Here is the input.
Amino acid sequence: MLPIHDDTQRLHGRPYVNYGLIFVNVIVFIWELSFTSNFAAPNATQELFYTYGSIPRFLLSGDVVSIITSMFMHGGFAHIAGNMVFLFVFGDNIEDRLGHQKYLLIYLLWGILAAYSHSLVATDALIPAVGASGAISGVLGAYLVMFPRAKIFTVVFAFFITTIRIPAIAFLPIWFIMQLVFGFIFPQSGGVAYFAHIGGFLAGLGTAYVWKRLACNRHLQVLDIRSPPIKKIAFNPESQLVRGEPDIIKGPDFYEILAEIKGISGVSDVSVNFEPKNSLVRITDNKSKISQVLANLPEDASKYDLQEIDYLNGIIRVRLG
Here is the structure.
């Protein structure tokens, strides 16, 4: 199975850090090809990987710098192509949720923890480990916690080739179980550092869980603020977009709008626009293009930006902060 894209919308523009990570990995790989004559020179290849790769025995003796260099190196075309596809599909939304600087720091942290996970299993190994997959595994773990109901558009290679949409809550656990199975069968062989994947994934799960808990534990001040009765520009019998009035919640530094919506499967089926000048949030059904939720906010909401859009069990949540 190869993921090609997801249906999770970004809210904060382009993921420049994620693009930068992919760019650096590609540039380093081109340099590897030049240095090793397309990996055809065995002495140069060995020198390269033993100099910049992460060797478990040396890592446990204090060679931490090699972790960072090894995270941007790859051992072949299939290696870098697979890693960069996963990073491209899943990394942008994690950056969107964490922010640019935090995402970069946490990404590197996941890579470090993944390298130590591998080294603790292969304590005396002198074979260098290279690749971004440990850090990317952290991205996958965080994605599972933050976007469990996202749909992953996946190419399936079997007796035929087809594309299907798989929920993240199914796709990512299957991937992790495969790492566990192969990790215990081939803990120090097979050419893949499975325990780096396992450690990175668990680190991503833990980081995202703590992140969400901290966000949820903020003191919420629920005020009796109501939008005027919902205005439907037109009635779409197939969509029946909204029932009731949207609830507006004011926190110390944010607003949230909760509205019950029918006839959609996820956030990709609606468009959300915030008009700061009018302090108005407009939710539009992408199918009909005409049914709308209009939520009028207090004037002080104009200083906020659109941050998050979630949909669960018929309720859409829009957060401004």
